[in-house]
Fold:
Amino acid sequence: MIREPQHQLYVGIHNSVVAIDTRDGNEVWRTKLGGTSLVNVLWDGEGLFAAAKGEVSRLDPRDGKVLWTSPLKGLGIGSVMLASARRSDLSQQMVPADTQRRRQQAAAAG
Structure:
């Protein structure tokens, strides 16, 4: 069953990315990437990215399907750090509703 990303935790472990439902702890899907056991994962609010075996891949957060892979030719295999400049609306959703309402009122008041 495909589930929405806002209720999933993505874990990079032992050559795989695993999506876990944060409400009940059940595994939603698992995608094997191969290579070394170290897998770095980045969810930036829109895209799910994983780095393993000297490659970076974009996965579909709903089902784990690999959408594309960049081989990073000539860089070898080693530790990888991922970052994104994309700003997610998820950060706004984490602010309590009353705080959001006060901020909107203050902005409207000038």
Observations:
- Helices lie at 90-93, 97-109.
- The chain has one domain: 5-109.
- The longest strand covers residues 8-13.
- The two ends are 47 Å apart (CA to CA).
